[in-house]
Amino acid sequence: MNRNFLIVLLILVAGFPGISRLQAQSSADTVGGYIFTDIKIAPHMPVKNQNQSGTCWSYAGVSFVEAEVLRQGGPELDLAEMWPVRYAYEQRAESYVRLHGNFNFSPGGEPHQVMATLANRGLLPEEAYDGLTYGEDKHVHGEMDHVLKTFVKAITDNENRKLTPVWMTAYNGILDAYLGHKPEQFTWNGKSYTPQSFAQQVIKLNPADYVEVTSYSNHPYYKNFFLMIPDNWDYEMYYNVKLEDLTNIIDLAINNGYSVGWAADVIDPGFSHKKGLALVPEKEWKDIPRPSRDSVFEVAGKQRVVTAEMRQQAYDNYSATDDHSMHIIGMAKDQEGNTWYKVKNSWDTDSNDYGGYFYVSQPYIRLNTLAIYVHRDVVPQGIN
């Protein structure tokens, strides 16, 4: 997309909020040698910026919730990503200490944890909990993450040989300092809410309506199982389906006006947010000379046929790991009629020439998706 046109379009979006919830893109994009035509775009809110924080899971999950509210005829909402982050840090500290430090304590997570926050604590608008109390206008979490991890390690290394009753109070004091005190009530559009009443009266989603789906052959298909990835720290169960059904569920969702939460590997050489593409070339990367690798993104070419065996191998050998969570908001076709998916990222609007969106090929989805998060109504009845 032409950058000057994008600037004009974003100005228009700012002036007319209704545009942002529907589509902040043109209906066609030329990306490298690919010409994309958007064929279905779900209502969604504009791209945000997680900046220097490991909170992509919350940005993806919150974006998904905002889109679901729009899909069900609700208002445009700018929800607070740092509220689920706050809840997650509290839960992780409890698990870390109870498991004597034998637990993954890091900023990462999965989109389903936003829905868990909605269920257990409600959600807030951004204006009620922006998490910026430490002199920055964008999230910079390096110091906070280090302080929190050092604190819980000190608790488990405690030479007193017993926990004091105030360790969690002290821990919450750190979170208060960096993210802000938890509001018991706040005002939105002239009305007073608690986080729970805001969830019930404004968001109006039922967390039980949403499921996380994956596809791995080392577990029985069409049963649920514990997906062993570090960021599934709350031990959520995932539904396991065959690879064809995984992509069919995404297609059904998009074609019926739904969007999809997406956890995926972005370390793969075929992922280039800057270039606006994620793909799987026909040749393996080791067989493509390094000086020629950029041409894969610049010239439209054939892509590899990805099988369930290839996908399982990528998971087993750590070449497909849970690196990033994003939001699939639409579907497109290239000039050859191949299916691609339009993805909303959380790396700000100026992170590439496409306003922070990019296109993902179906082979990349099949190979590098860790899991998807969807409304259970889009899961075919025989699987559901």
Short summary of the structure?
With 384 residues, this protein is an alpha+beta fold.
Distinctive features:
12 helices, 14 strands, 384 residues, twelve-stranded mixed beta sheet, globular, two-stranded antiparallel sheet, alpha+beta, Cathepsin B, Chain A, disordered N terminus
Overall helicity:
25-40%
Count structural domains. Answer: 1
How can the largest sheet be summarized? 12 strands, mixed
Q: Mean pLDDT, as a whole number?
A: 92
3D architecture notes:
This protein has 384 residues and is an alpha+beta fold. It has helices spanning 3-15, 17-22, 56-71, 82-98, 112-121, 142-156, 167-179, 195-203, 243-255, 295-298, 308-316, 362-368; strands at 28-31, 34-41, 186-188, 191-193, 210-214, 223-226, 237-240, 260-264, 271-272, 277-278, 324-333, 339-344, 357-361, 369-375. It has one domain: Cathepsin B, Chain A (Alpha-Beta Complex). The chain is globular, with a radius of gyration of 21 Å. The protein starts with a helix and ends in a 9-residue tail after the last strand. The relative contact order is 0.17. Mean pLDDT is 92; it is low at 1-26.
Show the helix and strand layout.
Layout: H1 3-15, H2 17-22, E1 28-31, E2 34-41, H3 56-71, H4 82-98, H5 112-121, H6 142-156, H7 167-179, E3 186-188, E4 191-193, H8 195-203, E5 210-214, E6 223-226, E7 237-240, H9 243-255, E8 260-264, E9 271-272, E10 277-278, H10 295-298, H11 308-316, E11 324-333, E12 339-344, E13 357-361, H12 362-368, E14 369-375
Parallel strand pairs: 5-7, 10-13
Antiparallel strand pairs: 1-2, 2-11, 3-4, 5-14, 6-7, 8-11, 8-14, 9-10, 11-12, 12-13
